[in-house]
Task: inverse folding
């Protein structure tokens, strides 16, 4: 058999080299390319492979490629993703760092690279636009193909991308090539299971693009919802996360109000929701962070700034983002109050941050409020230590604690930022409670109400978000 050695380290049988046929619409099992094999791209590539497509995964980060190939070779960590990698890598899923090798063999190209926010809170899309330029540098790679944008985008971006592609290639979208925006709505840590079942929003540039995208999506599962335009699909995606974080901000502002009136916000929420189906208020927390919840509401602002200027106040979701951004600051404020009650300040105090993942039971630390609290505390002179049983990242610029039981005795405060299962267990363990009592100063600042039972316990100073904090 003849092999193509461009697939670094791995061989690709020649029969997988397909020439684009201009007819994605007629095929159900085809060759597809996924650009960006991160959290979303990997799950998508695996599901497409499982559906019977031949998938070419393009990834520029050599470390990520090494890690993915390592799974195949060592068979370690049997997560659902790794088990599927084992099954499909080099059989129906082929990895490469070469964009044009991946695209030229495929009839549909899914783009799942990261999109970000600049330091002044504006959408940062240069990586995506550079990628589009790169794709268009070979017009033959554009011709006849369907491009599906999966990365979260500000409203109007799909049309801007089409315009760039048309200008660079002289071709026409809807006739010579096809583009659809099909947002990803899964939770990062449940990507594989949710992607197979959640509804798929299809926002084609034109009807033909929508039809072609729907045809491939149907093969991986979930209801197909065709939006009238790419803008509608872009907006639906942003609404999801803007709505969620607005609800969280409502709960967090309630928590501040409860603290003011010396009430318990967790009890307040429980009672307000109890047997009253019109209320569905979430519990408050010491931070609402993560890659998507911090970025998406700011993307939504792009179309709203004229209204905000005209009426003199910002959107609800923008204010909600600000309200959520305030919670880590408030956590630090509670910590300072607690330390001052025992005659201490942040300077020179040992603080253990429990939880640096952005939410419970995940290893994802992107835009984490726990890390933000850690940096702010260090900036004010505290000695900060981190403990997170879910996170295995080694290159954090803070000392990591492996054995919290040993570490606690040297600490002046424990600050809990997420409600990992492990922390809930810990809050019920009499041995740990005793260790807290034995801390250098037994202060607990709780962002999730996990340690509420410690309130009023002799020898422990408990301060919590949404708590009376007498
Ligand atoms: N993670 C989530 O929970 C989630 C959920 C819904 C939507 N999204 C959106 O999906 C998109 C991807 O998110 P993610 O979490 O998978 O990001 P990620 O950072 O985990 O993955 C992106 C991958 O793309 C690679 N990449 C970047 N530029 C590339 C290029 N030019 N060529 C090839 N590879 C390239 C990166 O190396 C990285 O591995 C983002 O826009 C995000 O907002 C993410």
Result:
């Amino acid at each position: 058999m003849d092999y193509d050695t461009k697939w670094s380290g791995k061989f690709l049988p020649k029969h997988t080299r397909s020439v684009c046929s201009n007819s994605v619409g007629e095929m159900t099992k085809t060759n597809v390319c996924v650009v960006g094999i991160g959290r979303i791209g990997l799950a998508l590539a695996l599901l497409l492979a499982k559906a019977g497509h031949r998938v070419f995964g393009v990834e520029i980060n050599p470390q990520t490629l090494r890690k993915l190939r390592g799974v195949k070779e060592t068979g370690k960590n049997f997560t659902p993703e790794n088990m599927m990698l084992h099954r499909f890598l080099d059989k129906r899923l082929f990895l490469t760092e070469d964009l044009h090798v991946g695209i030229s063999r495929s009839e549909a190209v899914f783009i799942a690279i990261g999109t970000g926010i600049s330091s002044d809170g504006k959408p940062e899309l240069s990586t995506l636009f550079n990628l589009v330029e790169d794709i268009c540098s070979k017009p033959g790679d554009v011709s006849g193909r369907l491009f599906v944008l999966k990365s979260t985008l500000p409203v109007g971006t799909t049309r801007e991308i089409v315009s760039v592609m048309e200008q660079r290639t002289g071709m026409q979208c809807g006739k010579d090539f096809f583009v659809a925006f099909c947002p990803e709505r899964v939770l990062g840590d449940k990507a594989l299971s949710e992607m197979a079942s959640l509804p798929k929003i299809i926002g084609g540039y034109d009807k033909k693009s929508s039809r072609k995208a729907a045809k491939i999506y149907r093969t991986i599962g979930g209801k197909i919802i065709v939006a009238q335009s790419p803008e509608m699909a872009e907006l639906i995606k942003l609404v999801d996360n803007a709505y969620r974080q607005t609800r969280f901000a409502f709960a967090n502002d309630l928590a501040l109000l409860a603290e003011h009136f010396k009430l318990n916000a967790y009890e307040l929420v429980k009672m307000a929701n109890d047997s009253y189906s019109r209320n569905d208020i979430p519990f408050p927390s010491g931070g609402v962070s993560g890659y998507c919840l911090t970025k998406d509401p700011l993307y939504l602002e792009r179309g709203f700034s004229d209204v905000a200027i005209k009426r003199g106040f910002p959107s609800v979701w923008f204010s909600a983002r600000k309200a959520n951004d305030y919670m880590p600051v408030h956590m630090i404020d509670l910590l300072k109050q607690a330390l001052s009650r025992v005659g201490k300040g942040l300077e020179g105090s040992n603080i253990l941050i429990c939880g640096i993942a952005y939410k419970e039971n995940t290893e994802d630390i992107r835009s984490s409020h726990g890390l933000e609290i850690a940096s702010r505390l260090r900036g004010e002179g505290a000695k900060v230590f981190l403990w997170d049983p879910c996170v295995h990242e080694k290159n954090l610029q803070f000392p990591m604690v492996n054995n919290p039981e040993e570490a606690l005795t040297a600490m002046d405060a424990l600050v809990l930022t997420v409600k990992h299962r492990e922390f809930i267990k810990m809050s019920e363990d009499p041995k740990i409670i005793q260790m807290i009592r034995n801390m250098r100063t037994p202060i607990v600042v709780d962002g999730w109400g996990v340690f509420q039972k410690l309130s009023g316990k002799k020898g422990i100073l408990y301060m919590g978000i949404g708590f009376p904090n007498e």
Notes: The longest strand covers residues 31-35. The two ends are 77 Å apart (CA to CA). DSSP finds 18 helices and 17 strands in the chain.
